[in-house]
From TrEMBL:
Residues 6-238 form the ABC transporter domain. Its main location: membrane. It is a peripheral membrane protein. GO terms for molecular function: ATP binding. It is found in: Cell membrane. InterPro entries: AAA+_ATPase (IPR003593), ABC_transporter-like_ATP-bd (IPR003439), ABC_transporter-like_CS (IPR017871), ABC_transporter_ATP-binding (IPR050763), P-loop_NTPase (IPR027417). Pfam families: ABC_tran (PF00005). This is ATP-binding cassette domain-containing protein. Keywords: Antibiotic resistance, ATP-binding, Nucleotide-binding, Transport. PROSITE patterns: ABC_TRANSPORTER_1, ABC_TRANSPORTER_2. The lineage of its organism: Bacteria, Bacillati, Actinomycetota, Actinomycetes, Kitasatosporales. Residues 311-344 are annotated as: Disordered.
Length: 344
């Protein structure tokens, strides 16, 4: 990959005895969205803070470059190239939205005229023109978040760090934020996103990495990650208890029974051949299911499988997932045994 917007090698950070980042690598192409997922306290914010120069990397970290600038030798240039929106808003509630933006323009040493032009443009773009002259403390959560991001954009950054940008937003505001992020990427901006919402990573990210116990335990596109965990199944539901029992007998050990719902669940990757074989077996026995649903793994399944705290995830193996497109999801975690086949 040539000139990634963010490149880090062996990023480390410890707080006292606690190792938060244990030598992790990032290589994020320009104009893409990278999502960092991980359980609470995994170290996502710590990674953002290091990459955005807010805290120094830990001892033993390798080279880090952001926006084409070396973090160790040219932190000032990194700062000029990036925008950061943290979990805690930079918005000053005592002044208006417009004043917040003008203040940022001053901080970026824009001329008065340029500051006013950029402010008006951002107010318009983030649908805040009407509220521009009201104190930001009167804004809704969604408006404050939009203003926060607008403030980040005053300096026209090419790399933006969004640390949980939609936490606490209602679904409409969240979708609005996604649109806005897509717009930024369309303009060539690189977005480093942390989120608790797997759906958000699924919607937005070109690449997703899962951070757990100080390591990136998997990295790939949403589709690639979904392929590395089990969780895909076919569910057959019956209204006739006799048909249900017959089907359970015929499908045998493959089927997990849900007696209360008269439903059977069979592991499946959702391919046509597997579906055909299940239906053929039912047809041969003269059994008809009332409902058939196919469940493909989602990022929740991936997250749960990769961030389990039991000993499974402690026995690390380096594996590579085959992918239909030729690009592979990298996993560095022990994945549940029944899935080992698909990640070989
Ligand atoms: N300044 C600090 N001093 C000591 N420990 C810290 C400091 N900052 C963070 N930590 C610890 O480092 C770990 C990672 O914290 P971090 O905020 O990076 O996690 P996170 O993945 O962003 O979590 P969340 O999803 O809850 O925001 C946590 O255990 C946290 O308590």
């Amino acid at each position: 990959m040539t000139n990634p917007a963010i490149a880090a090698n062996g990023l480390r950070k410890a707080y006292g005895e606690k190792t938060v980042l244990d030598g992790i690598d990032f290589s994020i192409p320009a104009g893409t969205v990278f999502a960092l997922l991980g359980p609470n306290g995994a170290g996502k914010t710590t990674a953002v803070k290091i990459l955005s120069t807010l805290i120094p990397p830990g001892e033993g970290s390798g080279a880090i470059s952001v926006g084409g600038h070396d973090l160790a030798t040219d932190a000032q240039a990194v700062r000029a190239a990036i925008g950061v929106t943290g979990q805690f808003s930079a918005v000053d509630g005592l002044i208006t939205g417009e004043e917040n933006l003008l203040l940022m323009a001053d901080l970026h040493h824009l001329s008065k005229a340029e500051g006013r032009r950029v402010t008006a443009e951002l107010l318009e773009r983030f649908d805040l023109t009407e509220a521009a002259k009201k104190p930001a403390s009167t804004y809704s959560g969604g408006m404050k978040r939009r203003l926060d991001i607008a403030m980040t954009l005053v300096g026209n950054p090419r790399v933006i760090f969004l640390d949980e940008p939609t936490t606490g937003l209602d679904p409409r505001s969240r979708h609005g934020m996604w649109q806005m992020i897509r717009g930024l990427v369309g303009d060539g901006v690189t977005v480093f996103l942390t989120t608790q919402y797997l759906e958000e990573a699924d919607e937005l990210a070109d690449r997703i990495a899962v951070l757990h116990n100080g390591k990136l335990v998997a990295e790939g596109s949403a589709e690639e990650l979904k392929r590395i965990v089990p969780g895909g199944h076919v569910r057959l539901r019956f209204s006739d208890p006799a048909a249900y029992r017959d089907a359970a007998a015929h499908l045998g050990g493959d089927a997990v029974r849900d007696d209360a719902a008269l439903a059977l669940q069979l592991p499946s990757d959702g391919t046509q051949s597997i579906l055909r074989s299940i239906l053929d077996r039912l047809d041969a026995a003269g059994i008809e299911a009332d409902e058939l649903t196919v469940h493909t793994p989602d990022l929740d399944d991936v997250f749960f499988a990769l961030t389990e705290t039991d000993t499974d995830t402690d026995t690390k193996t380096d594996t590579e997932a085959e992918s239909g497109t030729g690009t592979a999801a990298r996993t560095h975690a022990a994945v549940p045994a029944q899935n080992k086949e698909s990640v070989r």
